[in-house]
Design a protein that fits this description.
Layout lengths: L5 E3 L4 E5 L1 H4 L1 H12 L4 E5 L8 E7 L2 E7 L5 E5 L14 E3 L2 E3 L6 E3 L4 E3 L23 E5 L2 E5 L7 H5 L2 H9 L6 E3 L4 E5 L3 H8 L5 H4 L1 H9 L10 E8 L2 E7 L14 H19 L1 H9 L1 E6 L3 E5 L3 E10 L2 E11 L4 H13 L8 H14 L8 E3 L16 H18 L1
Antiparallel strand pairs: 1-2, 2-21, 3-12, 4-5, 4-7, 5-6, 8-9, 9-10, 11-12, 13-20, 14-20, 15-16, 16-17, 17-18, 18-19, 19-20
The protein binds FE2/S2 (inorganic) cluster and fe (ii) ion.
Fe (ii) ion (FE2) binds next to loops.
């Protein structure tokens, strides 16, 4: 494959080939070597609150049925009928102890076993127990806290090993609440005419904020009391295996638990109360980090957790080299008060939502990059070197976190070649 990155840190050089964003062969290879082999985010336990709860979701182009049986056990099944292949469950979510295929009426239990089929007399007696006639389980399903991941490969490292240092950052998100975190409602769904790796980069790009999101920053400055005095500072951390985060302080408010003047004295009392409980539960150091630091994290290849004002959990999959589909959810502490939830959800839609201040600008930037790649010719590489020449502490607007992502991308694609 001639789409390799060029990494020469001693020369302050890190270049990504533009072919990686446009080439059909690279795209197919990504499905074979990355999406079919890595642990991929499936959903959050709070989305399946009871025995019998189910949801359907597309993960890496495949329809998945994610559900709980009557004992409360979680299952991830390929959502395709063993008879002729029809998608068995056509609902987005709900509660059901069984699933009937609409085509010929075969009915499956929540663990995928064939329960009944019309016209059974036409089949041999042991037909129903034939392993080939059951819905198929996704090869591997595992969880860290309430975050569920699946893996389409039977082989390879377990989830904890795969997540490396990113596991602790996911735990930190779960620790926002003493009674559990929950997805707050619907899903943000949108698509972008750009390569999926542009969104991976963009999600942890501190460099673009001042330029791309100047409108939003101006708006915050003009919204009375929406910003406190805390400076924007911090840096990127390599979490290994292609995962990375930028962790930084910022002037905006966080429902857990950084107060801004806009929230008034009553709000201050509540925020102080939340912070006091965090200190008691987690200790001073971890509580301070949880409450007062923002985190934009990429878990390779395509899970983004933005723990900023709201918490956004986002996954995205390509359907072509120049097209990607996004799903995003908001997570919140179950015990959160109504007024804090209001601020959280306002931010979820106001900034990161598809109609908010940030996402439309990011979509524009991503689509303009994709369009720019059409020039071809000698313009073969993107520059991702910011920070390599810096001495001392990394800055939140350096590009180390993207280099971590790209280095893993390159390793996985080239290992297959070798
Ligand atoms: S395809 Fe499902 S019952 Fe026939
Ligand atoms: Fe952005």
């Amino acid at each position: 494959m001639d789409a390799r990155i060029i990494s020469e840190p001693s020369q302050n050089k890190f270049l990504v080939p533009r072919k990686a964003f446009t080439d059909q062969a690279v795209f197919e290879r990504e499905y074979a070597e990355i999406f079919n082999k890595c642990w991929l985010y499936l959903g959050h336990a709070s989305e399946l609150p009871e025995p019998g709860s189910f949801l359907t979701r597309k993960v890496a182009r495949r329809p998945i049925l994610f559900n709980r049986d009557r004992h409360g056990e979680f299952h991830a099944l390929f959502n395709a009928c063993p008879h002729r292949g029809a998608m068995v469950c056509r609902e987005r979510h709900g509660k059901s102890p069984a699933f009937m295929c609409m085509y010929h009426g075969w009915t499956f239990g929540s663990d995928g076993h064939l329960m009944t089929l019309p016209g059974a007399a036409g089949y041999p007696k042991d037909f129903k127990t034939d392993p080939q006639k059951q819905m198929v389980h996704v090869p591997r399903l595992d969880r860290i806290g309430d975050f569920f991941f699946l893996n389409f490969s039977h082989d390879g490292e377990d989830l904890a090993t795969y997540l490396a240092d990113a596991g602790d950052y996911l735990n930190l998100v779960s620790e926002h609440s003493e009674s559990g975190m929950a997805v707050t409602g619907g899903t943000q769904e949108y698509a972008i005419r750009g390569n999926w790796k542009l969104l991976a980069e963009n999600s942890v790009d501190g460099y673009h904020a001042a330029c791309t999101h100047s409108t939003y920053l101006e708006y915050l400055k003009n919204a009375n009391g929406a910003l406190g005095a805390t400076p924007l500072e911090g840096g990127g951390i390599d979490l290994n295996n292609g995962h990375a985060v930028i962790e930084y302080s910022a002037p905006w408010g966080r429902p857990v638990a950084s107060w801004v003047p806009l929230w008034g004295e009553e709000g201050k009392t509540e925020i102080d109360g939340i912070y006091g409980k965090l200190q008691k539960r987690l200790g001073e150091k971890r509580a301070d980090r949880l409450a007062h630091k923002n985190r934009n994290m990429i878990i390779f290849p395509n899970l983004v957790v933005n723990d900023i004002m709201a918490i956004t959990v986002r996954t995205f999959f390509p359907t072509a080299p120049d097209y990607l589909e996004v799903n995003a959810w908001s997570l919140a502490p179950v015990e959160e008060s109504d007024w804090l939830r209001k601020y959280r959800l306002f931010n979820f839609t106001e900034f990161l939502g598809p109609g908010g201040f940030a996402t439309p600008d990011d979509v524009e930037a991503i689509e303009k990059c994709q369009q720019g790649y059409a020039v071809g010719g000698d313009a073969k590489y993107n520059d991702i070197s910011k920070g390599l020449a810096r001495e001392g502490e990394p800055s939140f607007d350096d590009e180390m976190q993207m280099r971590a992502f790209w280095t893993e991308w390159d390793r996985r694609l080239s290992a297959a070649e070798d």
